[in-house]
Design a protein that fits this description.
globular; mainly alpha; single chain; transmembrane helix; transmembrane; two-stranded antiparallel ribbon; 20 helices; membrane; 464 residues
Length: 464
């Protein structure tokens, strides 16, 4: 069903809009679809599937945050929700509803009719890489939910809202929350904050785009500093949290990968020498650093101090830059599903053993949801690269067209997804499908704006 542009689509110039009651009508049908889908996910996985890092986030929410590999911001949010309704269910409902509700908010701002909103929500939620991730209480969903909500507020400010400044400030606040959920989220926030500055200035022209880019970059830096403070200190005591150890594991993984592809060992052994290449080739797995570590059954690979392993890592990259890139490319191909075998870790259909008293008992909906995701892992729709290509192709076809009504929104959405993806080539420790979650959402939102522009152009042509 096409959006209903026949009754007057959203205007490009915000000041020229009229404050009509229909502009603020509640999207009841879309919201009802969101509620049904989110309840289905929670019931099917009740009380919400949880992996180790999900349980660790809840444990810290119930005790005190410790930092290290896990940004504490998610635990602060969970602390509030766990107080209202103990366990993972409310957290899962909250992040899934915020994410899909933000999609409805965007569609409503674009004046998509109720049927189109319902169909789009269900279709998007049913995409295999999204379904598999939303069944689990993972911070990837929460981060994407805050990014989507922040972007929705900014789109609303440009297309529908009076006054817009309030919605812009609200959108920036939501984007800050999304940045705080993951240590690597800042790159994805950059295009959205550039868009925020562009909307706030409400002016057109190439110079305004440059000014918005500079302003958005400055805003990212300010918010990034605030994120560092939030995720580095325990509130309200302001005690320093444990150091983030993620990069230590990634560097150790890179050393094994460089050794595997170069044929020369650059990986220190526990006995003080270097681990032989044949053994490293045997344990190396481009799908996950933890699988590689688990394969080290003889415990040959040394666990070094941060400064020491960093020196080995820098020296290895300088000596074997091509082999470092070959290793990283192998991980990245697994990451985006650019291979013939099934994508890695499409969902986590259980609650790991824990001391929090949380367990999962399958119900009638569990095999329906999990079975669907499990069967779909062989589908082309499970592969993240498909969505990135679709988003890029839509812009290539769309941008040369005369009507570029939502070009800014399309570029911001896809740019956010791809900029979030780009650093993962170098820093990803694994190829979990869930790590693509926001990037896939950015590509899908780009398609929404491209379709809206094309339909608006057709509607304008008929009106003339």
């Amino acid at each position: 069903m096409a959006p209903d542009f026949a009754r007057g689509g959203p205007l490009q110039d915000a000041p020229a809009r009229e404050n009509k009651r229909s502009d603020f009508a509640f999207p009841a049908a879309g919201v009802m679809a969101v509620l049904l889908v989110t309840v289905f996910f929670t019931v099917a996985s009740y009380p919400g599937f949880m992996s180790y890092d999900s349980l660790e986030a809840l444990r810290q929410a119930r005790s005190h945050v410790e930092g290290s590999q896990y940004p504490p911001f998610g635990s602060y949010v969970w602390r509030v929700l766990d107080w209202i309704w103990p366990g993972p269910s409310l957290m899962q409902l909250f992040q899934n509803a915020l994410l899909l509700g933000s999609l409805v908010w965007i569609l409503h701002s674009l004046r998509w009719n109720p049927i189109a909103q319902v169909v789009t929500v269900i279709a998007v939620a049913a995409l295999p890489p999204l379904t598999g991730t939303m069944l689990v209480v993972w911070k990837d969903v929460a981060m994407a939910a805050f990014y989507a909500a922040g972007f929705a507020a900014l789109v609303h400010a440009r297309l529908r809202a009076l006054p817009g400044k309030i919605w812009i400030a609200f959108g920036v606040l939501l984007l800050f929350c999304g940045m705080a959920y993951r240590f690597n989220a800042a790159s994805g926030a950059l295009p959205l904050l550039i868009y925020a500055v562009w909307v706030a200035r409400a002016r057109s022209g190439r110079r305004e785009i440059v000014r918005a880019a500079l302003g958005g970059t400055g805003l990212v830096l300010v918010l990034f500093v605030l994120v560092l403070v939030v995720n580095s200190f325990r509130f309200p005591s302001m005690e320093r949290l444990e150091r983030n150890t993620n990069m230590d594991g990634i560097m150790r993984y890179d050393l094994i990968g460089i050794s595997r592809f170069s044929g020369e060992s650059v990986t220190p052994a526990r006995d003080g020498g270097m681990v032989d290449v044949a053994y490293l080739r045997k344990i190396y797995d481009p799908r996950h650093v933890n699988i590689t570590a688990a394969n080290d059954v003889e415990h040959r690979v040394a666990v070094q101090e941060p400064g020491e392993i960093a020196r080995y890592w820098v020296a290895a990259i300088r000596q074997h830059p091509g082999d470092y890139l070959r290793h990283r490319a192998a991980v990245f191909r697994e990451y985006i599903g650019l291979h013939r075998h099934e994508p890695f870790y499409v969902t986590h259909p259980s609650v790991d053993e824990n001391k929090l008293g949380i367990s999962h008992t399958p119900n009638a909906l569990t095999p329906v949801a999990v079975g669907y995701v499990w069967k779909a892992r062989y589908s082309i729709l499970e592969r993240a690269w498909v969505y990135y290509v679709a988003g890029l192709l839509s812009l290539v076809v769309f941008l040369p067209k005369r009507n570029r009504r939502f070009a800014g929104e399309a570029v911001a959405a896809l740019g956010s997804g791809l900029l979030y993806l780009a650093p993962m080539f170098f820093i990803s420790p694994a190829a979990d499908v869930r790590y693509n979650f926001w990037s896939i959402w950015g590509a899908l939102l780009c398609l929404v704006f491209v379709v809206s522009s094309l339909l608006a152009a057709r509607s304008d042509g008929r009106a003339s």
